[in-house]
Amino acid sequence: MSQPARGELLYEGKAKQVYATDDPSLVWIHYKDDATAFNGLKKASIAGKGEVNCRISTKLLELTAAGGVPTALVRALGPRDQLCLKVDIIPVEVVVRNRLAGSLARRLGQEEGLVLPRPVVEHFYKSDALNDPQINEDVAMAMGWARSWELAAMREYALTVNALLLEFWGGLNIDLVDFKLEFGRAGHTVLLADEITPDGSRLWERGTGRHLDKDVFRRDLGDLSLVYQELVTKVFADTPAA
Ligand SMILES: Nc1ncnc2c1ncn2[C@@H]1O[C@H](COP(=O)(O)OP(=O)(O)O)[C@@H](O)[C@H]1O
Ligand SMILES: [Mg+2]
């Protein structure tokens, strides 16, 4: 497979850069070491974070695609670079929760940790300016952000991804507490896009409840760089070195 040529920087977000390529239907995504929390209020550079996120995201998007959910990932271009289909990102973030934590625990005035008897799907409007407020499917449709069939596909895909990830992380003795997904449009289809990373997930070590995710940075629980190295070692333990 020929290496695409990296073109102009189209967009720089908090964690990644998106570049054009010589094919207008494809983008080159580069994962940075930058960490932000609380919508950019807290910032740091975490050595190796971009590589850990990119390698894990590539693996989990491949697993997801193999499980029947179409994704924007074409292939990895290196340890912190991916080639992806260029999509129009739908500005509705989908969160799936298996245990009570984070903003839902706060909203309900409850301790974190309760195991939910069935997964909970939540929607948030992707807007840095508004701090990603929670919405529901009716709001997304009324505002013209997504159509009914797109929201139905997003929900079904998100729940399928959840089942696949519960099995994957469970096999590593890690509890998948919750995670966030973004979807995009390419032609007439909805694809899972962006990333599946420990930045956008809550991962608790089974038994101890130790955080193996970005909460280590948000809550000053330790050295995120070391925790992410530990995580990537677990994820690729069975993979022979390239
Ligand atoms: N395949 C894709 N095509 C187009 N845009 C994408 C694709 N994958 C991700 N993006 C967008 O790239 C941007 C950069 O990522 P990131 O740094 O995570 O941004 P953010 O600060 O919004 O979280 C995000 O807005 C994301 O929605
Ligand atoms: Mg992001």
CATH superfamily of the largest domain: ATP-grasp fold, B domain
Order of helices and strands: EEEEEHEEEEHEEHHEEEHH
Oligomer: single chain
Please work out how many helical segments DSSP would assign.
Answer: 6
CATH overall fold name of the largest domain: D-amino Acid Aminotransferase, Chain A, domain 1
**What is the CATH class of the largest domain?**
Alpha Beta
Q: Terminal Cα separation, in Å?
A: 17 Å
Largest sheet: 7 strands, antiparallel
Secondary-structure content class: alpha+beta
Total number of strands: 14
Integer average pLDDT: 97
Radius of gyration: 17 Å
Brief descriptors of the model:
binds adenosine-5'-diphosphate; single chain; five-stranded antiparallel beta sheet; Phosphorylase Kinase, domain 1; 6 helices; 29% helix; 2 domains; D-amino Acid Aminotransferase, Chain A, domain 1; seven-stranded antiparallel beta sheet
